[in-house]
Design goal:
The chain contains eleven helices and eleven strands. With 350 residues, it is an alpha/beta fold. It has a seven-stranded mixed beta sheet with strand order 1-10-7-2-5-3-4, sandwiched between helices. Strand 3, helix 6 and strand 4 form a beta-alpha-beta unit. The longest helix is centred in the C-terminal third of the chain and has 22 residues. The chain is globular and about 65 Å long.
């Protein structure tokens, strides 16, 4: 039996490595510049490394449609399952996460699960994915297309069976039978990475209607998921500096965020995570060419159900009892001043 301390250390190392890889490219630019000025040997080695990364970035990755061959896994599949099972147990210990289904999903239906909020890093979604995989019900994953252009990262996420979140790919995923009948996306994306506050919850939903159209075309039921705790894993820079980084990210079409985790590191805070899925919004039959009115109708139903599960379960969670959920078209109160401000404020009269 593996001790809790060993599990905690394992998951900390795994999370640190993942975050380090995610930041490899921006950190590597000044490092590479320093190396090429040092010596001829280092210059040649650095240039060779850059070429290898470029080839890795643009070289096609073999399609891995299914990570595990259920219900008859091979020997390699069994080894992969054992690894994921250990990682799943480590995440459970570190985050104390749990999954709540407000209504059980059926095996004979296809589901498009739209999860909110994204947070800086959607670890709650990762917990949901690992837990379902260990149970023998793996979820299909569709991620941001930019992730499939990052060296090393693209190979890791492609190995898990993830694909870019395009309409075509989603259409293929939503036609899979059980146990691959659940597909998960995070519509909020990069925009929600900046919306991490301790006093309120904010999501981008009003302008996110593309997933509704895809589900209607495929005839898949639409399931809202709220990931409690996902926005509390890191402290994200706010104020004028945060607004500048958000502006810069929009212009460059990539996330540039000031943040820190546990003890000022890249590791997330060990906050409890809870993934709640609501009642499916039934799509009786495929609609090949949904109208704007039909898309808007199902979009409204989705928003109502998403807010219902938030209002139902937030009061039951310690850190969410007094937190309100805001959509992007609603007026959000200004953030409270940081605690340190009370001790650094200049007096009005000297």
């Amino acid at each position: 039996m593996i001790s809790s301390s060993v599990m905690s250390m394992t998951v900390l190392i795994n999370l640190f490595i993942f975050q380090a890889l995610y930041l490899l490219v921006p950190i590597g630019i000044p490092f590479f510049y320093t190396l090429i000025k040092s010596s001829k040997k280092l210059r040649m080695a650095s240039i060779a490394t850059v070429f290898a990364l470029i080839i890795s970035t643009f070289r096609p990755i073999p399609s891995r449609a299914k990570l595990i061959n259920y219900p008859n896994p091979t020997l390699i599949d069994s080894l992969i399952l054992k690894c994921f099972s250990f990682f799943n147990d480590s995440l459970k210990h570190y985050f104390s996460y749990r999954i709540i289904e407000d209504e059980a999903l059926k095996k004979n239906k296809s589901y498009l699960i739209a999860a909110f909020p994204h947070g800086l890093q959607p670890f709650c979604f990762g917990c949901y994915m690992f837990d379902n995989m260990v149970k023998g019900e793996p979820v299909n994953v569709a991620g941001a297309s930019v992730l499939f252009h990052l060296p090393i990262i693209r190979h890791l996420i492609s190995f898990s069976g993830a694909v870019p979140a395009t309409s075509r790919n989603l259409g293929v995923l939503l036609r899979r039978p059980y146990p691959y009948n659940k597909t998960v996306i995070l519509p909020g994306g990069i925009a929600e990475m900046f919306l991490c506050r301790s006093d309120v919850e904010q999501i981008i939903i009003e302008s996110r209607k593309g997933f509704i159209k895809v589900a209607l075309k495929a005839g898949a039921d639409i399931v809202p998921m709220y990931m409690f705790g996902n926005t509390q894993l890191y402290r994200v820079a706010g104020g004028k500096f945060g607004e500048f980084l958000q502006f810069l990210s929009r212009k460059l079409r990539m996330s540039i965020i000031g943040f820190h985790g546990r003890m000022g590191s890249l590791l997330p805070f060990p906050v409890p995570l809870t993934a709640v899925t609501g009642k499916p919004i039934v799509v009786p039959a495929p609609i090949p060419n949904p109208t704007e009115e039909q898309i808007e109708e199902y979009h409204q139903l989705f928003k109502i159900e998403l807010r219902r599960i938030y209002d139902k379960y937030a009061p039951l969670l310690k850190d969410y009892a007094h937190k309100r959920l805001y959509f992007e078209n609603e007026t959000v109160p200004p953030p409270p001043p940081p605690a340190v401000a009370e001790f650094t404020r200049f007096p009005h009269k000297l």
